[in-house]
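User: For a reading group we're discussing how well predicted structures match intuition. Take L-fucose:H+ symporter permease. Before you show the prediction, I'll give you the sequence so everyone sees exactly what went in.
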Amino acid sequence: MSAKPNFTERKYLAVFLFVTSLFFCWGVALTLGDVLNRHFQNVLHISKSRSGLVQLSLFGAYAVIGIPAGMFIKRFGYKRGILLGLLLYALGAFLFIPAAESASFNFFRFALFVLACGLATLETAAHPLVAALGDQRTSDQRINFSQSFNGLGGVIGPAIGSYFILKAGQEHSEDLVAVRDLYIAIGLFITLLAVAFLFIKLPVMNQSQDKKDVIEVKPLAQQKHFIFAAVAQFFNVAAQGGTWAYFINYGHDVMELSDEKSGYFFSLSMMMVMIGRFAGTALMRFIAPYKLLAVFAGMNILMCIIVALHFGWISFIALIMINFFFSIMFPTIFSLGLKDLGKHTQQASSFIVMGVVGGGIFPPLMGLIANHSVATAYYLPIICYVVIMLFGYNYPRLVKTAH
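Assistant: Thanks. Here is the predicted 3D structure of L-fucose:H+ symporter permease, as structure tokens, for the group to look at:
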């Protein structure tokens, strides 16, 4: 075996690039939810804690659909799994039409839930598929690279939302028409993407992956690195969901910026996710992924403390930098948790995807504190980063005891 395995193989390149584009698509959808969070506060006149239910609808879908999506993909394959995910994504977007007509917060939450069922199905398929498109020693790098385009989607999402939804003074900034029209356009785009994917042929996966199915692999319940990864992913997305949900509120309430300007700064912070993932992919050529994960988690503990103490622009810059250090966490936790699981890989992927429900539980809890002080609410994610830091620090021992 070569000392430096290839990033991927030529025969996988077309599929790898197409699947990477899916990471971009769900990045747009998830960060648009944070723009909707603020817009619904203004238009539907709901509290910060209740608007946090937007994130519960989005991330809660992952807990509901994670295992069924894994079973579907195991039976019908990656291609049909991705097609199902795209169709659910489009359906949820089109449900914004009746939701806007009825001006019902609960109807919007249902539409977001259906859309997020599509996102969860896509994630359940895409992560193990990207990991399998080459040597397993470079799976961390491939997943981080693909997730970089999730970060790009995260930049585009709030920028689009701020311009079309939050921009003050425009015709539909105080109603739901712009929201409806934007999601119609998204639904049409995703539908076209699903049609294009019908013509993509998936290659036979790397045989080195298949050989692991022949070797006896311990049950998932005995794989400590997988169990800790699922727990760490729950807290990771919890921190993500809470941080993103109240970013615009922090800009408005603490920094006294307009909603539109806060939205653009949120877009800038999402650019830090993309930069962090490209930087992380490069650094992993020299630093073990679990070590880098622990260091970045420690840095975010410091960033959260600075944000909560509200030192003006210093704290706002720290809030933006949270996304830089957050960047590698989701893909790295995912990849580390799936290492050497053989025939259990797809099932493990389903469980780790379910951990995304943390992003639905944390925003309403942070909202209860944010109702009184948005800055103080940012002490809460520190709990999450402590768990992630412990996972990274202990990873070599977890792997050793699991095999």
